[in-house]
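Translate structure to sequence.
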C-alpha cells in the first residue's frame, strides 16, 4: 500500500510539473523567433501567433490596526502556445508579434497604476473591486489587441504598423514608473 501511494504521489507530482506552463516575463529585451515553440496551426490563415497576457496576485490583512494591501502584476509571453509558420520568420512579422506582447505589458502597467492608488477597507471590498477591475482591464486589453490586428492587417500595412509602434511605445513611456 505504501509503495502504491508513493508511486501515485510521484506520478501526480510529475503530471502537475509537466502541466506547469513555461512563460517569459516582459522585459526590455525583445522576443526572438526561438521563443515561438508551438507547432504552427496549419489551418490558420495567419503567419504567426503570440499568446501573451497579464496576471495579478494580491493580499489583504490588518497590520497594527490598519488595512494592509499588497499586490503584484506581471505580463507574460507563453512560448508553448506561440508559433510561426516555417519560412515566414521575418523581422517585420517579429516586430508585429512583439507589439502584441508590449500591449499586454501596457495593460499590466495600467493595472499597477490603478492598484498603487487603491486602499481597500475590507477583504470583501477588495475581492469585489479587484474582480471587476481585472475584468475591465482584460476586456480593454483584448479590444486593443483586436484593433491593432485589424488596423495593421496583422502587420501587413507598414504605415499602420509604425503608427501603432509609436502609439504603444509612447503609452509605455508614460506609464514607465509602473514597470517592474
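Result:
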Amino acid at each position: 500500500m505504501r509503495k502504491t501511494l508513493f508511486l501515485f504521489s510521484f506520478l501526480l507530482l510529475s503530471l502537475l510539473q509537466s502541466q506547469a506552463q513555461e512563460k517569459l516575463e516582459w522585459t526590455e529585451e525583445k522576443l526572438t523567433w526561438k521563443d515561438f515553440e508551438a507547432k504552427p496551426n496549419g489551418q490558420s490563415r495567419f503567419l504567426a501567433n503570440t499568446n501573451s497576457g497579464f496576471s495579478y496576485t494580491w493580499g489583504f490583512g490588518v497590520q497594527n490596526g490598519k488595512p494592509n494591501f499588497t499586490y503584484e502584476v506581471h505580463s507574460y509571453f507563453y512560448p508553448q502556445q506561440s508559433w510561426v509558420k516555417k519560412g515566414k520568420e521575418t523581422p517585420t512579422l517579429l516586430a508585429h508579434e512583439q507589439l502584441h506582447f508590449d500591449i499586454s505589458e501596457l495593460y499590466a502597467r495600467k493595472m499597477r497604476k490603478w492598484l498603487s492608488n487603491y486602499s481597500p477597507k475590507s477583504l470583501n471590498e477588495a475581492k469585489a473591486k479587484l474582480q471587476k477591475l481585472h475584468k475591465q482591464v482584460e476586456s480593454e486589453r483584448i479590444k486593443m489587441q483586436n484593433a491593432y490586428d485589424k488596423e495593421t492587417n496583422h502587420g501587413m500595412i507598414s504605415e499602420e504598423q509604425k503608427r501603432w509602434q509609436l502609439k504603444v511605445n509612447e503609452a509605455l513611456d508614460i506609464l514607465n514608473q509602473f514597470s517592474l
